[in-house]
Amino acid sequence: MKSKIVFLLLLITAFFLAACNQGTADGKETKVLRLGHIQNESNAWHKGSLKFAELVEEKTNGSVKVEVYPSSTLGEDRDLVEGMQIGTVDFALVAGVMSNFYEPYSILELPYLFHDLDHLEEFVYGDEGKRLQDDMLEETGVRGLEFWLRGPRELTTNKLVESPEDLRGQKIRVPNIEASVEGWKAMGASPTPMNFGEVYSSLQTGVIDAQENPIEFTASARIQEVQNYLVMTDHVFGYVQLLMSDKTFEELTEAESEAVLEAAEEARNYQNDLVFQEEEAAIQAMLDADVEIIEVDQELFREAVQDINEKLADKYGRELYDTIQSMRE
């Protein structure tokens, strides 16, 4: 029995090594790397990931191949980051949860930090955004390749919400990020952190009353089937980062690492164009499901979070907060 188990383990190991060390047409070894994310295959994240994989293989002449694993196949956000730190995950798309690993990222999650999409782009694609990624790499061992844009986060509910007062008693799913939790408390809601994979069923069964996400994210998860209102709060202009394990990066040749960086930039442009095209289709999907779109006075919500934003800015990084604010003064 023992010998059979040993044989089986050896067989599995051999299969794994064969899978991870494929060869190119000229006989050179192919590095097979894994990219994970939490979205389904219809989402722009996945399509952008496939474009990145295609570009990496093309630019390295097949010496590096990226396999894409959607729908949390490799784990939720936290699992993906931890995997990159130890080298079991090579790439991932991760949004605000990165703030749990490098605290200054929490500043970017403050509601109404950015005034609009142009404000966000000015920061993430400028020197300050690059500096933030460099500091994250030094602290965490995770390398930021590119910021990918997302549509603004909006609220969906089963109760009409037109002002912060209407949020009283509403249980809203939020990511497990302090800035999100405290922000929604300040706006009057009862925030409930949970993994996004649990949101649909939790809305369906009444565990939560509402959730907030970019519209294309919401629609691709079919949230319109279990919510009645789309409330246009624009409370966060956000991003997702294409991240890479620095352990993996250091194992690439110089030519391969340059190819990965080039592919990341091209995939960013591809995804950014795609995500806003898909936002229009997502809004139509909401309307087709008889979801009512509610326009609100966003200043009422902005004013509700100012005190908590100032408090959290002192905790996470006043200098970064003030730098971002000064870009719109």
Descriptive overview:
One of its GO terms (biological process) is transmembrane transport. One of its GO terms (cellular component) is outer membrane-bounded periplasmic space. The protein is an alpha/beta fold and 329 residues long. It folds into two domains: 2-150 and 238-281, D-Maltodextrin-Binding Protein, domain 2 (3-Layer(aba) Sandwich), CATH 3.40.190.170; 153-237 and 288-326, 3-Layer(aba) Sandwich (D-Maltodextrin-Binding Protein, domain 2). The chain has helices at residues 2-20, 44-59, 77-86, 117-124, 127-140, 178-186, 199-205, 215-220, 246-251, 254-288, 298-316, 318-326; strands at residues 21-23, 29-36, 64-69, 91-94, 142-149, 153-157, 171-174, 190-193, 210-214, 229-236, 239-245, 292-295. Strands 1, 2, 3, 4, 5 and 11 form a six-stranded mixed sheet that branches. A six-stranded mixed sheet has the order 8-7-9-6-10-12, with helices on both faces. Helix 6 (178-186) links the parallel strand 7 and strand 8 (190-193). The longest helix is centred in the C-terminal third of the chain and has 35 residues, at 254-288. It is globular, with a radius of gyration of 21 Å. The model is unreliable at 1-20 (pLDDT under 50).
